[in-house]
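Quick start: what a row looks like.
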Amino acid sequence: MAQLSLLAPQLFPSSAAALAFSVVLFLWPVSEIVGAGIIPLIRRGGVGARRRDRGSLLLIFLGIIISLTVATAFATAGIAMLPSWTCYLGIILMIVGIALRQWSMLVLGQFFSMAVRIQQGQRWSRRVRTATFATRRIPA
């Protein structure tokens, strides 16, 4: 049977875990492209927002790449090995994090942007006030 994982199978407790991680790792950027890029552009009628990012998105991206690289290197070298259940917990936490981000994009609708700010004309609807945003500050 062919290995379908993007990463080395010995890094995971089972081939099912390797496949699940690979699927989630692939769907994460796809959900970002659709949820944070395409849908807001459609909602704004094709007009792009001005970008004011001062490099934070690049730092986040580099942090993700470096974290995955270090984790893979540690696992390959056998450094700081964790019990197998932590792999499944990590996959579940990835799915929950992706779902929370997509939900926040849905709640904020056309006012969602990659930068945390209140846009001109934005009103705090009842839906937003009673949602998680009412009690927590959730960055994009």
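That is the whole record. The chain has four helices and no strands. Residues 13-134 form one domain.
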